[in-house]
Each structure stands twice: as C-alpha cells, then as structure tokens.
Amino acid sequence: MDRQATDNNKSRDDTAAPSAAVIRTQLAKIAGSSGFQRATRLKKFLHFVVNEKLDGRADNLKAYTIGLEVFDRPVNFDPITDTIVRVSAGKLRRALERYYLGPGRQDNIRISIPKGRYVPVFQIQEFEQTRGDIKPVESACEPLDSTKQPTIAVLPFRKLNLGPSREFIINGFGEELTMALSRFSGLRVIAYYSTSGIDPEQYGQDQLCRRLGATFVMTGSIYQAADELRLNVELVRTDNSQQVWSQRYDRNFAVETLFSIRDDIVQNIVAAVADDYGIIPKIIATASQGKTVDELEAYEAVMRFHHFEITLDSRAYEEALLALEKTVAIDAEYALAWAMLSILYFDAFTFSFGDLNNPVEKGTEAARKAIAIDPFCQHAYFGMCFAQLLQRNEEEVIRNANKIIELNPNAGFLVGTAGWFLALAGQYDEGFGFIEQSIQLNPFFPPWFHFPYYLNSYLNGDFSGALKTVEKFGLPDFFWNPLMQAAVLGQLRRINEAQAALQRLLSLKPDFPARARFYISCFLIKDKWVDRMLEGLKKAGLNEV
C-alpha cells in the first residue's frame, strides 16, 4: 500500500480543479521528467488515465480496460489472476511521488492516483513566498479523525553538546526513522526531505500541524558527552499538542558502533509507535470506540481486526468480519483489508465462528488477492501461513513466515506472529527467538503468543512447565484455555482438576467430543502431536465420539 505522504503543502480537491489545458501541460511536464523518460509503459498508463478522465470517461477506468488499452492484453484478460495492472499502478503512484519530491516539488498542479482506484485526481497547490523560500499556505488543524489513515512527520532532532563533525548523526537518524516508519502499512509518512529543513523550536505544535498536515509529529534531542550518547524522543498529537509517548535511550557511543546503535534505537521506536498494537493504532482505536459496524470507515475496520486478535472474542470476531467485508465491497483494491479478512475466514474454520460456507477457500483466495494487490503486505503472508498450516505444509509455512520477517523486521507483532508459525512448523529455536524479539519490541502482544511454548513443553514431557504457560495464556473464555489445561492436568494425574477443566471446555465447545481431533489438528501440524494432546485429554476423562 502506498504509505508515503509527500505533500508538504495545502492542496484543494477536485471541487477547485485546474482546467483541462493546464492539466495536459502538467502531464507533458511529468512525462518529460527524468524519472519517466525511459518508463515507456508507465507514461502510457499515466497518459491513458488522465486523458480518459479529462474526456469524461472516468467510469471506464477499470483494471480490465487498462489491461487491454495500455498493456495489450487479450479480450479474455482476467485482472484477478494477471496482476500487471495492479502492480504497475503501484509503480506509477511511487513514480509520481518521487517526481513531486524532486523536480515537481514546486509545481502548482498535482496529479495523483489514490490507492484503491485508477481515476486520477487533479489538485491546485498554492504557495506563498517567504524570505526566498517556498512556504505552503497554512490551513486549519483538524481534530483527529479515526476514519483516516494517520500521518506522521519526523522532524530534525535538536543538537545538545554535539560537535559539528557529528551532525551527520542527526540527519542519518531522521532519514532511517522515516524509512522504517514508512514500512508499516497502516501509516502514512511525510518524506524526511520535506521536514529536514524545519526547526521545531521555531514553531508551536498547531503551526507544525498546519504546515505539514500531519496527525502526529515525532522529534526529540540528541546529546553526547564523551563516550555516552543520549537520545530523547517524543511523539505529539498535532490536533491538541498532547505528548502521547516519550522515551529516553542511553547508549555507549563509539564511531565504529554508530550504525548498530542507530538501528537498535530505530527498531525500538517504530515498534513502540507504529506496530499493530503500538501507540498510534491504540489512539485511533480509542477514537473509533462506540461506533456501530455500519458507521465504521475502512481504517476503523482494521482497528476492529486488531481488537479481535487480542481478545479472540466471538462478538469481536463478528464486528471485525462485517466491517472488513463492508470495506472490501467498497474498496476492492485495499490489500490490508483483504489480508485481514483472509485471517478471519481461517479463524471461522478453526474456531467454528459464524456459519460461513467454504471458509478455507475464501481465506486462501483473500490472501492471494492481498498479495496480488500489494506484494509487500505482511498481513497477506500471515494469511498464507495460516492457509499452509491448515494444509500441513511445513515448508510453505516456513517460507511465508520468513517472508513476513523479510518485509519488515521492525514490525513487532508480525515478527512475533512469524515466529509463532515457525514454532508450530517445528522450528522452535528460531521461532522462539522471533517471538521474544517481538515481545521486547512491544510488550502489548496477543496472549496466544504463549501457545508454542506450551506445546513445546507438553510434547517434551515438561508438564509442570506447560501448566505454568497456560496461566500466562489467559483468555479464560476461549475454549483453547481449558483444552490446554485439561490435557496437561490429565498427564499430571491431577484428575479432579483435569475433569473441572474438561467441563469448562465442554461448556464453551459442546461439540468438542465429536470434533476434538479436528480442533487440535488445525494448529498441530503432525499427527503424533495431535495424538499426544488427545492422550492427556482422555486421561482427564474425554470420550471421543
């Protein structure tokens, strides 16, 4: 998904659009720029969508039509299986962003193609001159809107006792932090190119909001004393100037360790702020509380998915499912929504949530759609891991889990999820390493992260250790809690307690005796592991039907 917000200026929407002649002049300027000169197909793509809209044929701008007209596909072209239009649209959006970051940063006319559609938007950009510099016209600072994807700007960090020869630390840090944040699919990031010349001490938060159009601003200070480096970081909401997060990082400093120090700090910051369960998603989720599913917008639907992943509650599941199905019905090109929907379809199968037809097939197809739309969507590979786990394909589980980590090793929740899948595929040491890395990056992790630890202890006969892990698992109203407890208590021959746990399990899942092997085999990839779990449950008193 396109995550970089490169506008550091005020734009009008199409209600104040420029004339067709002016737009075509701007189109020619873009097409003649260095970034487009050799990109013949992207130029053709851009010319086609712009001219179709200007000629009143915007309704024709569908993937099928573009495939035929721009990419010379045959009449039986299927844009679902042949992703050339979607992939090329992503390339075109990024090429336009680069143009407006560089040679077009002072252009008065902006042409863009919003994510999820192929109809271009034409905007007028107004500037005013201030001491020889281009300064954007300021607009009012809007209250935080939970329906919109949040935008963050990283401002230069203040220098405290930092010699001129070390100033590269600040610029390098800001650039690395901006790039790391931009890899999170739920966040738009203003390019550091647009903020690097701003002195935060010269502006109040309201002024920064108006200047940048950001929902959040991150800044701080860097202090060096001898071989000690101290970094203070703060995150501020621009709509009310509230500091919502701050952290101090102290490190022993040496030139030869500078890059490893920087990478470590950047990793910790972005996980705390931008991760699925980081500060920014929590603030947005809180702002959307109290709304019915029908009132939710696309980004709020994503928040409902995160809520379900923490609680595994059936009511939260229904809300998330309805919200995401509504989202993809409106925006069929929203990769993240398709990816999350795929996971919910698999949950419907493994937990018997709802009454869906063919949930595994629907889940697999939704995950494939998400990858086709956005090959960099980590959640889509989460869905593919789930699909392969249900097919008991260890190699593919491992391959897709490694893809999650490769795409963004700073995404704490998803790195932990990848570790979870690796462990369930039998790669315990590697999997536990990633889960522990995830927990260190962000302590707000879902309780089901503990399940592989339980499984490893149980299968190795460490039943006391497995029982302690059940206590960490929590979720007393989720049927896997008493399931794990009953199995391990049965193995420990604590029969009265085991039977009590089994009764709780049956009260939550009355069909469990008839479907015990099914429920367990959804997550245990080897038959001998399933048999071992059933052994403990039978000792607790389970009679399979």
Taking the sheet with the most strands, its summary is: 7 strands, mixed
What fraction of the residues are assigned to beta strands by DSSP? 5-15%
Helicity level: 40-55%
Rounded mean pLDDT score: 83
Number of strands: 11
* Number of H- or I-type helical stretches: 24
- Secondary-structure content class: alpha/beta
Task: Report on the architecture of this protein.
By secondary structure, this protein is of the alpha/beta class. Among the domains are: 4-133, no CATH class; 151-276, ABC-type transport auxiliary lipoprotein component (Rossmann fold, 3-Layer(aba) Sandwich), CATH 3.40.50; 447-545, Serine Threonine Protein Phosphatase 5, Tetratricopeptide repeat. Helix content is 54%, strand content 11%. It is built from 24 helices and 11 strands. The chain has helices at 20-31, 34-37, 40-54, 63-69, 84-101, 168-181, 192-195, 205-212, 258-274, 279-287, 298-311, 314-330, 335-351, 359-373, 378-390, 394-407, 412-424, 428-441, 451-459, 463-473, 480-491, 495-508, 512-521, 527-539, and strands at 4-5, 109-112, 121-124, 127-130, 133-136, 151-154, 158-160, 188-190, 216-225, 228-237, 243-252. Strands 1, 6, 7, 8, 9, 10 and 11 form a 7-stranded mixed beta sheet that branches. A hairpin with an 8-residue loop joins strand 2 and strand 3 (121-124). The radius of gyration is 26 Å and the shape is globular. Residues 1-16 and 127-140 have low confidence and may be disordered.
